[in-house]
Amino acid sequence: YLLELLDETSEGGQYFQLPGGKMTQENKEVIELQPLDGVLEKWRPLTATLAQTLSELQSGRAEVYNPRMLHSRLVSKMPQFGGGDQHDSHELLRHLLEAVREEDLRRYKSVILEKLGFNCKTDPATVEGEQKKIIKFYGQQASEMLLPTEQVFRGVLVSTLQCQICEHTSHRDEFFLDLSLPISEKQLPPLLRRKAEEIEDNKPSKHQTKKEKRAERKKNKKQKGH
């Protein structure tokens, strides 16, 4: 399914629209930004290489596949994965998904810059004044869209706060591509834990068990001799 979603970005021409809305300026004046639409360019190198890698892995070929090109693309963006050192696979997957997402998001940001009269390669950090806030406003709306990798991996963490006085409740949604959870041993209720400990205490040791088995074998031999 992920490969199908990535393939949809392989060609340029995909239409999108950002809703716009109200934005507060530095002078506290609220302005209404119009919807912004445009057409995206085709996918970028890392996304294309990931799709090629997934396609090769699903081809059913018998030979071993070496994802050298994907690793090279990732290292060019995140040098910490170079040098032949060992890394946690979960950490690599997390960075890979984030890098693909960021690369896809740049396609939207390029259109936003062009629509606002800038060169598509302009660094938003170098823009000054209200234009910088407008770029950031539309960029935030683009980042909230469900991009290809997020359609497979994205989840939502909902935080709920309730005032103990007025009981007003507020919710906050946080999106994530992966979620690390602690692994802990399942704790038994106190009563069951005590019973389990009693059973364990009454259980004979390995040495005692072997001794009893040897005595049983000797007894059986004597009975056969008679």
Automatic annotation (TrEMBL):
Residues 194-204 have a biased composition (Basic and acidic residues). The keyword Mitochondrion does not apply. It comes from Anoplophora glabripennis. Residues 192-226 are annotated as: Disordered. It catalyses: Thiol-dependent hydrolysis of ester, thioester, amide, peptide and isopeptide bonds formed by the C-terminal Gly of ubiquitin (a 76-residue protein attached to proteins as an intracellular targeting signal). Keywords: Hydrolase. Residues 205-226 have a biased composition (Basic residues). This is ubiquitinyl hydrolase 1. The keyword Cell wall biogenesis/degradation does not apply. It comes from the Eukaryota. PANTHER family: UBIQUITIN CARBOXYL-TERMINAL HYDROLASE, UBIQUITIN CARBOXYL-TERMINAL HYDROLASE 16. Transmembrane segments: none annotated. Residues 1-226 form the USP domain. One of its GO terms (biological process) is protein deubiquitination. One of its GO terms (molecular function) is cysteine-type deubiquitinase activity. It holds the Pfam family UCH. Its EC number is 3.4.19.12.
